[in-house]
Amino acid sequence: AGAFASYVEGRRYEVDRQVDYVRAQLRILRDRDALLRASRDDEYRASIFGPYGIPATERGSLV
Fold this sequence. Notes:
Elements: H1 5-30, H2 32-40, H3 42-49, H4 56-59
Helix pairs in contact: 1-2, 2-3
């Protein structure tokens, strides 16, 4: 357990962030007003959907 402590701690932020995204997505699916707000508020949408809410033009290309 000690050997993996730094690895686990390093991943904690990533996992917590993903859990926050999932919670926000579940909330937005249940809350019509939040969904409508996300449709017109770029900053709010990015906070809810994280990297998935960023327009494709800003994400770059895989090509």
